[in-house]
Amino acid sequence: MILVTGATGLIGRHLINRLMADGHPLRVLLDESKRKRIFWDEDDPAAPQVIAGTLMDEEALYRAVSGVYLIIHLENAMWWGRQRDLERVEIVGTRNLIAAARSARVGRILTLSHLGASPSSAFTLLRLKGQLEALIRDSGLAYTIIRPGVVFAADDVFINHIAMSLSVNPFFCLLPGIGEVVLHPVYIDDLIEAICRCLDDIRTVDETIEIGGLEYITLADLLQTVMRLTGMPRFVISVPPYLLRLFVRIQNLIFRRTLITQQWLDYVAASRTAPLNSMYHIFGIHPRRFEDTLLTYLPQKRLFWSALRHAVRRRPRSI
């Protein structure tokens, strides 16, 4: 039995579909408030068993981990959470999950972190991810930590929020600094394939694995690529990162949700790359090209209406 936390997130959705197709017995830990977001057919024989609860619910956690040999821990608050939400989910929630897993003698825990994660990082998101990694390494459980680059997909948050920001402002867009930060985008299907190959590859046990896609790209070039593919050229204004963070903080006081968050800015605050051949060298996977993949879905999106729907949605409730 495989337990998946964060099953309704971006990576969770794609991973659950893949694991169901491969016939793995599955269980998910899901907050009652997210039951309406279940995307699989609950009558499907391969459908995951749902345990209602959160990482803060010790009783639900113990029920969730009983009989489980692998936990894939994906629960996070990285795109929407304030710092207290991040600390609660990433640190307190992970600590509770480890305690339950040790008592149930779970075989291994697999989790996703970020390139550049470090307990000493100056950026909140990367610092908390570094602390999460330390908790898992010191847990006494076998583990696999995957550090991917920027994950992009048709339903992602990172690239789509850039495109939606362009759609609501027909004149200009704001760029942190001069866009010199180097990123290493990886397509969701390649990441899911890497996770699945970890399940049976003993070489990945007790390892921290850094992977990315086929190419590096600066933030400025990434922005230009999105503008070109969506047909929305904008005048780019370079803004000191600290002023952009202040602007985002003011936005958060006014709107329920914003397209660009403090965590989004943490994500692009420093260059974060893995070796270019990492995906092939470790897993034998030929990753997809960034622009070629975006071209298959990004130009067809109705970005302005997506931005409006996002703006009026209620903030997720912290677990």
Protein described:
β1, α1 and β2 form a beta-alpha-beta unit. The protein has 319 residues and is of the alpha/beta class. The strands form four sheets. It has a seven-stranded parallel β-sheet, sandwiched between helices. A two-stranded parallel ribbon has the order 7-10. A two-stranded parallel ribbon has the order 8-13. Helix content is 41%, strand content 16%. It has helices at 10-22, 58-65, 83-103, 124-137, 158-168, 188-198, 219-230, 241-254, 262-267, 278-283, 290-294, 303-312; strands at residues 2-5, 26-30, 49-52, 70-73, 108-112, 142-148, 151-152, 172-176, 182-183, 186-187, 207-211, 217-218, 235-239. It folds into two domains: 2-150 and 187-211, Rossmann fold; 158-182 and 215-273 and 284-312, UDP-galactose 4-epimerase, domain 1, CATH 3.90.25.
Coarse shape: globular
Q: How much of the sequence is in beta strands? A: 15-25%
Q: How many β strands by DSSP?
A: 13
The share of residues in helices is 40-55%
Biggest sheet features: 7 strands, parallel
Tell me, rounded to a whole number, the average pLDDT.
89
Judged by helices, strands and strand pairing, the structural class is alpha/beta
CATH superfamily of the largest domain: NAD(P)-binding Rossmann-like Domain
Order of helices and strands: EHEEHEHEHEEHEEEHEEHEHHHHH
As residue ranges, the low-confidence spans are none
Describe the strand arrangement of the main beta sheet, using strand numbers: 3-2-1-4-5-6-11
Oligomer: single chain
Number of domains: 2
| CATH architecture name of the largest domain | 3-Layer(aba) Sandwich
Give the distance, in angstroms, between the N- and C-terminal Cα atoms: 24 Å
